[in-house]
Amino acid sequence: MTNVTKGSDATTETVETEAGPARITWHKAKQARLVLAVSHGAGGGIEARDLRALAAVLPAHGVTVARVEQPWRVAGKKLAPAPRTLDLGWRGIWPALAGPGLPVVSGGRSAGARVACRTATELGAHAVLALSFPLHPPGKPEKSRAAELLGSGVPTLVVQGGNDPFGKPGEFPEGPYGLVEVPYGDHGFAVPKRAEITQEEAVAVITDAVVEWTGSLG
């Protein structure tokens, strides 16, 4: 069951899943060829700067963007549940994401990127966009999550801050995926005021990379 609410430039849809109600905010392209579905991390929501920027830029390039709020966020909880529950919610959301009949790029930031990687093959994702992939907990590189990234099974792009404590670009293993560095960026792609690029330029690195990458997907 879904409940749809229309706004000025977006449509919000509530989707029932086995993990509880989830919410999709659609930013539709006029002549869409892909859907890019992106979810949030374990400590934030769809208002994250990278997700907002993608929603603003991608529709003009033929990509409908769906910003997805997991059930725990819709329920107002402050802590994310276990990975298996996140995966359960994503599975329940997927039929709505595939509803337009277009190839779906599964994506997310941080914990959302892990979910996208873990479920990509199972759900038939066209590709995976991993924003700020948490390669390891801060200060604990021995607890690597590289297997999730390497196991996505579909074309994958990682966009990573150059100063991300959850894994700097140089820490990532070689593998069948692309990696774009956002210079000076932290886990939220924030850059220090003393950095050689502005915050706006840092965000443009993200959107430019995703525009180019989605344009290359068959």
UniProtKB/TrEMBL annotation:
<dbReference type="InterPro" id="IPR046879">
    <property type="entry name" value="KANL3/Tex30_Abhydrolase"/>
</dbReference>
<protein>
    <recommendedName>
        <fullName>KANL3/Tex30 alpha/beta hydrolase-like domain-containing protein</fullName>
    </recommendedName>
</protein>
<dbReference type="InterPro" id="IPR029058">
    <property type="entry name" value="AB_hydrolase_fold"/>
</dbReference>
<feature type="domain" description="KANL3/Tex30 alpha/beta hydrolase-like">
    <location>
        <begin position="32"/>
        <end position="213"/>
    </location>
</feature>
<dbReference type="Pfam" id="PF20408">
    <property type="entry name" value="Abhydrolase_11"/>
</dbReference>
<dbReference type="InterPro" id="IPR026555">
    <property type="entry name" value="NSL3/Tex30"/>
</dbReference>
